[in-house]
Amino acid sequence: MSNVNKILKLLTTPSLPVNQDDSFSIVLKNNTSSVVKANILGATTNLKDNANSTISFTYNLSGETYSSTFITIEYRVVGASVYQTATLPLQQQNIQGVVDALNALGIGTWFYSGNIVKTYNNKYQFGNLFVSVSGIATVSYEWNSENMVGGQLTVLVNGFTFYTNPATPPFFDAGLINDFTAINLGDTIDFQGSTPAGAIVTSGTAGVSTNDPAYPDGTFAQPYTNSLSVPYSFNFTINGFYTYSLFCTDAL
Amino acid sequence: MPTYAPTITTNSTSFLEVSSSNVSYEEIKNSFANNAYGIKEMYLLTETFMQMQQSYGFQKFDSNGDQGVETLIFPPDPYQKQKAIYKPSNKEEIFFNGRSSLSFDVMPYQQMKFTFYYDRVNTSDYLNENGINNFELIQEWDFFAPYKDLLQ
Prior knowledge:
Chain A has helices at about 5-10, 95-105; strands at about 25-30, 35-40, 55-60, 70-75, 85-90, 110-115, 115-120, 125-130, 140-145, 155, 160-165, 170-175, 190-195, 200-205, 210, 220, 225, 230-235, 245-250. Chain A has about 250 residues and is mainly beta. In chain B, a hairpin with a 5-residue loop joins β5 (about 55-60) and β6. In chain B, strands 4, 7, 8 and 10 form a four-stranded antiparallel sheet that branches. Chain B has helices at about 25-30, 50, 125-130, 135-140, 145-150; strands at about 5, 5-10, 15-20, 35-45, 55-60, 65-70, 85-90, 95, 100-105, 110-120. The N and C termini of chain B lie far apart (about 80 Å). Chain B has five helices and ten strands. The chains are: A mainly beta (about 250), B alpha+beta (about 150). At the A-B interface, β1, β2, β3 and β8 of A face β1, β2, β3, α1 and β4 of B.
């Protein structure tokens, strides 16, 4: 060690530790012009570790009013073809709340600078960030058999049956699918009926996607009214945190 | 419904570069799979006092799986000119075992160095410190001597 280095070492060593046997060192360098939130030294399975990432994902939330109580983020592991979605509650209605919610996902370390939310990640990819308007979507059904003609109503969420009328349908039955499962953006809802009854589907907004051939553009205006031949089926995708309800009756 | 599409940028260099001189950063992390390091002393070298005085969050999980966060601070002496500091720590409180991590802000274009002085720790350390090690007693009594003779 040269004399200069010895002096430098002394200068940068205010007090020496008692023991210097085993140690490891790491050097960090922020190569950006903004503050970076580091998360380091977890295991290889630590999905929050953002060291040495070369891909950044930034979201410009300028103009966001933060009136929402939930956000939804699309994410997928690198190589996967389909995004998964996670809906996360906002504890604070501001950009810090959005960052806290994203950090609660456990994938990537999220932080913000001004109105920009960002993360660095080479193992996961992130898609759209949805900032919801009024909380989680609600899906409900109502069966009303005034003429007692029989028939059946089944409600499926992502292909799984959550409600089926008994073999002998009651005069009246109603329920909220949210009581059975959480409804998230991207979920598919299928109302199926095998009755001559008509049905009305309403939603809090126009623009609900459906596979109804009467609406080839995939959307219908509200309220949606139809009397399809048996069996009838409405498929649509939850595209917002709105209220979707099916009113099914044989009196139409 | 407000929807925000990400702006995706790929850099040739990493945004936050983490390296080590003797072994790679990945090798250090891999070693946490088989070893737990109780940190008894930390050394931090920064370019600015502002960086030194950031709060450094140490996240860990206890045996119940509950997460705890301990905030580490590196307060420099008011008359100190060097932007380097040693900080003693309790190896039972600050440790790297693969489930703990360190989180903090790195200022723009700043470079910094951490050195962790450690003891390898084990759950059995606690037993040895707080009770009689029966295996050592058995060895002191030469308990296995007859068996050893028989085997020979």
